[in-house]
Amino acid sequence: MADDDLPDSLEPATDVPPRDEPPPPTTPKGDLRVASVIALISGIVVIAWYLFVVTASTISDLDNLAAIQIGMWVLAGVSLLFGILSLNARMARELAAAGFIAGVAAALLSISIGFFSGLELLN
C-alpha cells in the first residue's frame, strides 16, 4: 500500500456533511456569582459607613442619621443573608468566600458599632 492511496490531509473534505451543532451548555448548578457580588458590594458599603462613623467627629451633624443607621442595619442583614447563601456555590468559590467574609464582617460591625451608635440615637 502506497501513500498515494491515502487521502490528502490538507485537502478540504467536500463530501463530508457538516455536523449538527450541540446545544450550548446550561448554566451549572451552584453558580451563585450574583449572590456573592451582592453580598460583597453591600458588605463593602456597610463597612465603609462604619469606618466613616468611627473616624468622623461630626456624625451628629448629619440629617436623617436614624434612617441611615436603620438602612445600614438592613443592608448588613442583606449582606449576611447573601453571604450565607453564597456558601452553596460550586463555581467561583473565591468570589463566594469573599462575599461570605464581607457579609459576616458587615454583620459584626453592624452589631458592635451600630448597636452603640443606635443607642446614642435613642438618647
From TrEMBL:
Annotated stretches, region: Disordered: 1-30
Membrane-spanning ranges: 34-53, 65-85, 97-119
UniProt KW Membrane keyword: yes
Key words, A-Z: Membrane, Transmembrane, Transmembrane helix
Protein name: Uncharacterized protein
Origin species: Microbacterium proteolyticum
Lineage: Bacteria, Bacillati, Actinomycetota, Actinomycetes, Micrococcales
